[in-house]
What we know:
single chain, alpha/beta, UDP-n-acetylglucosamine1-carboxyvinyl-transferase, Chain, 2 domains, four-stranded mixed β-sheet, 31% helix, elongated, cell division, cell cycle, UDP-N-acetylglucosamine 1-carboxyvinyltransferase, RNA3'P_cycl/enolpyr_Trfase_a/b, peptidoglycan synthesis
Amino acid sequence: xxxxxxxxxxxxxxxxxxxxxxxxxxxxxxxxxxxxxxxxxxxxxxxxxxxxxxxxxxxxxxxxxxxxxxxxxxxxxxxxxxxxxxxxxxxxxxxxxxxxxxxxxxxxxxxxxxxxxxxxxxxxxxxxxxxxxxxxxxxxxxxxxxxxxxxxxxxxxxxxxxxxxxxxxxxxxxxxxxxxxxxxxxxxxxxxxxxxxxxxxxxxxxxxxxxxxxxxxxxxxxxxxxxxxxxxxxxxxxxxxxxxxxxxxxxxxxxxxxxxxxxxxxxxxxxxxxxxxxxxxxxxxxxxxxxxxxxxxxxxxxxxxxxxxxxxxxxxxxxxxxxxxxxxxxxxxxxxxxxxxxxxxxxxxxxxxxxxxxxxxxxxxxxxxxxxxxxxxxxxxxxxxxxxxxxxxxxxxxxxxxxxxxxxxxxxxxxxxx
Length: 418
């Protein structure tokens, strides 16, 4: 199992390019199921979650061609099975995103419930309720969501909570439904907008994406299209936190600063000097960051996917910060690992109180999830001595060659392959 060895204390200097957004690429790949024509995609990141999705589609009979330059073509003209098995779904919750497209185009789908998911505890129930509102007959059988509909019919669907994958699944289902569908309380994330833009290129009629009310006029058929996946705002934010912790001056290319308002605002509050262009960000840091409070929220608020990285920055900041996690109930698993590095953090329910220390000290730590991995790398860059981050397969799910990009910026970091 691979590890990262980091020797802290080196400031970051130079420039790197940010990859395409994982959270946009996953639903966009699944959208290829909506047509028999070819979908040509560029800026698709090379990540474990992308590989899992391509494997899932391939098992269904979809032709998936990947070139060396982050381009992928999807052709679903000979789909042989309408089932997404547990073996693949258990490794990635986003696999549920094949449910809407399969049901809309083929009238049937059999998708395993994501691993460890009880209906009602996570937003998977919102997907099911929404598809049922569109006329689907849905049952839970032997751990599978089994859905059938001769043709979905447009309806007004209001989810009980804001759910990104729920909005994406329902939007993909509705584009081939008969009549008008209105998605109320829809997610506004840039990744939802990116999916909608691809669907429009394929012939879908969608308005209101980027707001909490999306209106979709169903069409009989979609066609092929070409699309470039939007930049990964979470990866970009992670590198901004890294320079805030390690110091130095970096330039990020191929970014979309206009999607990163909440992150940029908080990091400027922490003392990072940030300049933005249309597709670049320059960030510099000297001295110690200032402690900043944050409360995670749905977009355009501060993203839950940036909470762990900001906590690593707050861990060495001047002052005490309060972080409130409102999206996920179990998103403080990185705290104990940061404490192993010398951080002073107390947890009370959904609230973390972080008392900044003047220095962290290197230690062996274990990644528990994707964004926790990034927070430990950031902390390791700022720590004295050597830090070993174990179980970085989590990191590889969402960051393309993170250690390579950090080395380009002057970090002392290497992957240890066992």
